[in-house]
Amino acid sequence: LHLHFLYSAFRTVPDSSDTLRYSIGAPRATASLTGRSTVATMTPRLTPNAVLDFSKEAARIGANDRPALLFKWWLAGRLTHRDLWAVITNVWMLAETPQQALGVATWVDLFRKVGFVADDPEIDQPLQPLTIFRGASWGHRRNMAWTSDFDQALWFAQRILDDDRPRYVFRATVDPGAVLALIGMEGGRNEREVVVEPSQLPR
After folding, report:
1. Torsions phi, psi of 124, nearest 5?
2. Could you give the C-alpha distances from 166 to 25, 29, 114, 152, in angstroms and in order?
3. What is the distance of C-alpha 24 from the center of its chain?
4. In whole angstroms, what is the distance from residue 42 CA to residue 117 CA?
5. What is the mean pLDDT of the chain?
6. CA 6 to CA 180: how far, in whole Å?
7. DSSP output for the chain
8. Which of 39-43, 46-50, 156-160 has the lowest mean pLDDT?
9. Of 86, 106, 116, 118, nearest to 179 (Cα)?
10. Using CA of residue 65, residue 102, residue 168, residue 200, what is the dihedral sign?
11. What is the pLDDT of residues 134-160, one digit of tens each?
12. Using only C-alpha atoms, what is the Rg of the chain?
């Protein structure tokens, strides 16, 4: 299975291959990699008091501080695997920059501990390769947060205000085993977020 990047934030440039380039700056070379499947599943049974206690403590601090609190509770053994399953998507979703708050390696480890997870219990892990998009500068193309919605990725690309660097929309087709979580696929924020393991993205 190959993953492809599509580039662009603002205008579409047709290409003779099956890869389109979208760009404000000069387009870059297409990258690819073979994904691998490491699907994990579990039946959640919660420890209600632990989940409630964590939620109460988390409510007292800012959303960007909650990933660190989650990890602290996990290390201290105050959350079981099933408790972690119950709270991890909410902690990730509410933090403005969750990856920066905790780091890629720690997040991937926590997500892998619980297996695939979604904030909607009716959503199952994808069984087929999934096309995803990310709006970002070139240096942030390999992060964890993607979306299944091109327009949403374009919005994020246009939202970058930190400097004058070119912004892009990247596209990848990922193996189901690369998908750690699906968040906001229906209702609510509706960002159709796909959390992936960056090591399974193209080099």
Report:
1. -100, 165
2. 5, 15, 37, 18
3. 24
4. 9
5. 78
6. 22
7. -B----B-SS-EE--SSS--EE-SS--------B-------------HHHHHHHHHHHHTS-GGGHHHHHHHHHHTT-S-HHHHHHHHHHHHHHSSSHHHHH-HHHHHHHHHHH-SEESSTTPPPPSS-EEEEEEEEGGGTT-SEEES-HHHHHHHHHH--SSS--EEEEEEEE-GGGEEEEESSSSTT---EEEE-GGGS--
8. 39-43
9. 116
10. negative
11. 999 888 899 999 999 999 999 988 876
12. 18
For 57, the token pair is 């403590």
pLDDT digits (tens, 9 = 90+) for 98-137: 999 999 999 999 999 999 999 888 899 999 999 999 999 8
Query: What is the C-alpha to C-alpha distance for residues 153 and 78, in angstroms, rounded to an integer?
Result: 36
Written as one letter, the residue type at 159 is: R
Q: Nearest CA to 203 among 59, 46, 29? A: 29
Q: Are strands 117-118 and 179-183 parallel, antiparallel or unpaired?
A: parallel
What pTM, to 2 d.p., does this model score?
0.76
| Angle made by CA atoms 169, 93, 189, in degrees to the nearest 5 | 70
Rounded to the nearest 5°, which phi and psi values hold at 103? 95, 150
